[in-house]
Amino acid sequence: MPATRETAPQGAAGPGSFELIGSRGCGSAIVEAALRLTGLPFHLTDLPYLKPGPGRDRLLRLNVSGQVPTLVLPDGGIMTESAAMILHLHDLAPHAGLVPPAGTPERWRFWNLLERLIGSVYPTFTYGDDPAKWAGPGAAAELMRVKVHDRRAELWQEIEREIGAPHALGAHFSALDLYVAVMTRWRPGQDWFRRSCPRLAAVAETAALEPHLATVLDRHFDPPLE
Length: 226
Fold this sequence. Notes:
Elements: E1 18-22, H1 28-38, E2 42-46, H2 54-62, E3 70-72, E4 78-79, H3 82-92, H4 105-128, H5 132-135, H6 139-160, H7 175-183, H8 190-196, H9 198-207, H10 211-220
Parallel strand pairs: 1-2
Antiparallel strand pairs: 1-3, 3-4
GO molecular function: transferase activity
Pfam families: GST_N_2
InterPro entries: Glutathione-S-Trfase_C_sf (IPR036282), Glutathione_S-Trfase_N (IPR004045), Thioredoxin-like_sf (IPR036249)
């Protein structure tokens, strides 16, 4: 994922409020947009999640992987995976339309594409952004970086062939559009998507017109992180 930038905390805590711990430009933008769409009360704690300090120490106490997003529920429970957060928020606020209704063709397509984004594309950032962590320094790390980035491009082009219009599922907006709008701003960047995956680029551009998502994108990606 892109390097993070430190920002001041947003909002204020209150009874019955969610706390979203995240970093600017990271996957927490997806959950932040989902929370805004639901209308559920929440506040943000923005921090450079890899930087040592009190914020990182607290994050590690809440989430042993030290990753963002981390969601603190109103009852104190902790959620650590964005897809799980999205599904939980849908259960609490189905009016937001994050997940298609049960029994519709869009429902199984939603599950399939969500799992591919989370299970296949997302890990390429884990292994490709800091390959020396996994392969050691030197030529092995650089080869791993190239191979992982090439595989990411293949995965995106596979998804490109299955994506709908004007939204990821076709006529109806869903949480998939939040993922596409955010993830197409990561490497290899929006220009690559416009050239190589124009349908995904178009879905991202349409999604960015949604006012709640537009607010989140402006905060996380201004200027663009490419």
